Structures are given as C-alpha cells and as structure tokens.
C-alpha cells in the first residue's frame, strides 16, 4: 500500500499575471528548444514551482509563438516528427515541474508539443476531453485533486502517468493510446473508467492501486498489458474486454472478484496468473468456453493455448504456465457447470509439468523414466483420470493386441483347449481369432472359466494381462464415479 503524498505548498507564485509576462515566459522557453541539450541541467527550459492560472493559455501561446519563429523551425527541421496522417510537427517540448494548475480547460485542444507536467497539482477539474496529444505526454507524480477527464482523447506518443494520484475519480472513456501507456504505481482513489478505451501498444499498471472500482468494459488491449502487483479493492469489471496480446496479473491482489466471463481472447492472446492473491470471498470468474472453444471429443485435442508460456520451450516458463492452469482449475471448480473446463485445466497442468521436466537440460535417469511413463501411461492411456473414455480404449487395445498374439500362435504352444470341448484343431484363421479374443477377454476381466488355458511362457503373458485388466477396471470405476458424483 503506497503512502499518501503530501499536499503541495500553497504559496507558489504565479507564472504570469499579465499577457506580457506570459509572452516573456514563452520566449524564454523557446530559446532553449535545442534537441541536443540536456534539459535536466538547463533550468531555463522548465517552468518550476509556479502557479499556472490556465494551462490551455500556456500551451496555445507556446505553440503559436513557435510557429512565428522561422529560425527555430529551421533549426528543428531534422528532428521533425510525422503524424499518422502525414502531418509534420516540430519536436517542441513544454516542461513544467512542481507547478500548481488553478484551471485546466483543454477541451478539444490540439497539443502538438511534448507535454511534461511532473509533480504537478491540478486543483480544479482537469479536462482534456477530445484533446489530441501529438507527441509524448508525461504526468509523472501528478496529483489530480478533482475529477480528471481524458475521455475521447488521443495520445499519439507515449503516455506516462507513473506515480500519479487521482483523488476524486478519473475518466478515460473511449480514449485511444497509439503508443505505450504507463500507469505504474498510480493510485485511483475513486472509480477508474477505461471503458471502450483502445491500447494499441504495451500498457503497464504495475503496482497500481484501485481503491474504487476499475471499469474496463469493452476496452481493447492490442499489445501487452501488465497488472503486476496491482491492488483491486472493489473489484474489476472486464465486460466484453478484448485481449489481442499477453496480459499479466502476476502478483495482483483482489479484494473482490475479477470478472472475466465475457472477456474475448483473440488468437494470440495469453494470460498469466502467477502468485495472484485472492482475499476472502474473492474469486476469478472465467468464461466457460475459454478453455474449450470446441465441443465434443475433438476439443480435447484442438483447444488453443491461452496461458503465457504454454507453448514455450523454456522449462521455467512451462512451469509457470503449469501453476497458472492449476490456478484456473481452482477457479473453475468454484463455478457451477464447468466440470469439463476444470478437467482440461487439470490435464494441461499435468502435461505442462511433464514438459517443464522434459525441457531441463540435465535430467537423471529417474526423471527420464518418469517423463516416459507420464507421457505414455498417465496421459495417453489413462488421461490423468479426467477423461474416462481413454481407459476402455486402452483396455480394448490390450485385449485385441494380445488376441492377435494368441491367434498366430495357436497350435504352437500358446493356448490349449480343455477336454470339455475336445481338441479344436485344425481350425481356420477366423475361428482361431474369435477363440483368441474370447480367451483374451476372460483373462482381462479375470473371469477364468477354465475352458481355455495358457501353455508355457504364455502363462506369464496371461498373468500380466489379468493384472492390467484389474487395474484398468478399478481406475475406470474411480474416474467414472468421479464424473457421476460431480
């Protein structure tokens, strides 16, 4: 939990009081618009520890004065930037630090310069509705004392809100972020609205704190989204949220449920839940067909990967993906009617554990043996007991395979008939195969009528078949009873 930021000092002198002072301030800032300089060591390039009467007036005066300085324009031509529509604009930077903004009415303002407002304090409502940020915008460590409106704004460059504080609500409704957006360590004291917002590149909410409800209804994340160690105190709404890339909830903390029932995961979408903390009563509500997009038996082979690292070849990434599927399995277990999803999560959890072990560079002979046994027996033959139909298929394969072995060896010391029926030799291939299937079946189910008995070393084969039959029948009973009980 982040500590509350101290209130700014109230006695900051105004940056200007007359229009002449505003023009003089702008002229000083433009004198230091040299891209090669280190502005952190040039105090004249900043507006520091001042009170800004109206931010819109400063931005408009700054941009207008820059357009009326042809020498400045010529000096900055090699550093011009091009917007997506082909329009060129100079790399102007308006820098403010530890300033107090008495008023901020930037509605529909076209901001062509890079805007930096570090450690600023917005006393009234901050309105950037329908504003257009052509270049980067940085509000690092800013404090928005009242409502902050960024609805339907567009950020053409990177947007930085690191360590900012929204004390009375924030609205990014239908906002478009065309470059990276960072909300690391931001504190949202009231509701945070990001509904219908589009994030075209990577987005970060690392260590962000959502005291109010977080609303991402129908938002679109095209790039990677990171909620590492974020805190959600009043739930998070992701109604019809679109994921196109990777999204991480690693280490996030939820006091209420994370609602993902209607989230839409596109083909390349991946999600990670490592070390997620769920408080009492909190849960992750997942989409039913998230794991099983196809119905019928075929869905067990054609479900798409949805966990970060699931299709990786790195042992550590595979192990993390296995833990995530274990987490998803527990999430589905708490929801009614999601038994199939719970089973497939368990299946993938076990498979990824095996893949992670197989991906290790150095393995002992026991680990190699475990990988082989797990692949061919636990997975392929038994389906980890979450797919009961694999067990009778395995049993039928054993019965028919050994029946073929018995068939081609009848009369060569494999099996013999009892005296009750008398000798059956000679007989055709078809009759021998039927007799062999009969013998293999009664051996598998351990009935043993005694009318047909093995001879020689086939006694050992029959004993093994009987042991496999007893084991598979018991395992099938357990797996099927589990399905019925649920």
Architecture blueprint of SSEs:
Layout: H1 19-31, E1 46-48, E2 51-52, H2 55-67, H3 70-75, E3 81-82, E4 88-89, E5 93-97, E6 100-101, E7 104-105, E8 110-111, E9 114-118, E10 121-122, E11 126-127, E12 132-133, E13 137-138, E14 143-144, E15 148-149, E16 154-155, E17 159-160, E18 165-166, E19 170-171, E20 176-177, E21 181-182, E22 187-188, E23 192-193, E24 198-199, E25 203-204, E26 209-210, E27 214-215, E28 220-221, E29 225-226, E30 231-232, E31 236-237, E32 242-243, E33 246-248, E34 253-254, E35 258-260, E36 264-265, E37 270-272, E38 277-278, E39 284-286, H4 299-302, H5 315-333, H6 339-358, H7 365-379, H8 390-407, E40 415-417, H9 429-444, E41 452-454, H10 458-485
What does this structure look like?
A hairpin with a 5-residue loop joins strand 3 and strand 4 (88-89). The protein has 486 residues and is α/β, with parallel strands linked by helices. Mean pLDDT is 82; it is low at 36-41, 77-89 and 293-302. The protein has a 10-stranded parallel sheet with strand order 1-5-9-13-17-21-25-29-33-37. It has a 10-stranded parallel sheet with strand order 2-6-10-14-18-22-26-30-34-38, with no helix packed on it. It folds into 2 domains: 79-332; 390-485, Orthogonal Bundle (Helix Hairpins). Helix 6 packs antiparallel against helix 7 (365-379) and helix 8 packs antiparallel against helix 10. It is rod-shaped, with a radius of gyration of 34 Å.
């Amino acid at each position: 939990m982040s500590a509350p930021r101290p209130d700014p000092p109230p006695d900051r002198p105004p940056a200007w009081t007359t229009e002449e002072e505003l023009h003089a301030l702008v002229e000083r800032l433009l004198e230091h618009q040299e891209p090669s300089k280190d502005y952190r060591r040039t105090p004249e390039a900043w507006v520091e520890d001042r009170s800004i009467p109206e931010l819109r007036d400063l931005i408009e005066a700054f941009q207008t004065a820059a357009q009326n300085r042809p020498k400045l324009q010529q000096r900055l031509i090699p550093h011009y930037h091009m917007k997506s529509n082909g329009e060129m604009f100079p790399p102007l930077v308006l820098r403010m630090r530890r300033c107090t903004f008495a008023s901020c009415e930037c509605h529909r303002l076209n901001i062509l310069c890079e805007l930096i407002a570090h450690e600023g304090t917005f006393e009234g409502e901050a309105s950037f509705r329908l504003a257009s940020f052509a270049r980067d915008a940085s509000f690092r460590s800013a404090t928005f004392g009242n409502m902050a409106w960024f609805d339907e704004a567009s950020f053409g460059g990177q947007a930085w809100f690191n360590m900012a504080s929204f004390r009375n609500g924030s609205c990014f409704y239908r906002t478009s972020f065309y470059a990276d957006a960072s909300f690391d360590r931001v504190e949202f004291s009231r509701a945070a609205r990001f509904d219908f917002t589009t994030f075209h590149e990577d987005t970060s909410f690392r260590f962000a704190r959502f005291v109010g409800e977080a609303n991402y209804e129908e938002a679109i994340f095209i790039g990677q989204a990171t909620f590492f160690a974020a805190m959600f105190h009043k739930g998070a709404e992701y109604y019809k949220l679109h994921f196109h890339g990777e999204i991480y909830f690693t280490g996030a903390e939820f006091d209420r449920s994370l609602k993902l029932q209607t989230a839409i995961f596109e083909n390349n979408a991946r999600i990670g839940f490592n070390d997620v903390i769920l408080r009492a009563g909190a849960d992750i509500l997942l989409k039913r067909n998230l794991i099983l997009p196809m119905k019928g038996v075929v869905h067990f082979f054609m479900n798409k990967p949805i966990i970060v690292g699931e299709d990786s070849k790195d042992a550590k990434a595979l192990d993390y993906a296995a833990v995530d599927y274990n987490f998803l399995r527990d999430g589905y277990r708490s929801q009614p009617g999601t038994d199939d999803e719970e089973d497939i999560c368990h299946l993938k959890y076990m498979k990824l554990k095996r893949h992670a072990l197989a991906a290790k560079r150095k393995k002992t002979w026991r680990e190699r043996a475990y990988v082989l046994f797990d692949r061919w027996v636990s997975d392929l033959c038994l389906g980890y007991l979450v797919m009961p139909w694999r067990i009778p298929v395995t049993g039928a394969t054993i019965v028919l395979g050994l029946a073929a072995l018995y068939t081609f060896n009848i009369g060569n010391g494999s099996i013999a008939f009892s005296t009750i029926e008398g000798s059956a030799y000679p007989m055709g291939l078809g009759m021998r195969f039927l007799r062999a299937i009969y013998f293999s079946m009664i051996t598998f189910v351990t009935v043993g009528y005694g009318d047909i008995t093995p001879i020689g070393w086939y006694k050992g084969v029959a004993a093994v078949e009987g042991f496999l039959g007893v084991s598979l029948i018991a395992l099938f009973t357990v797996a099927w009873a589990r399905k019925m009980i649920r």
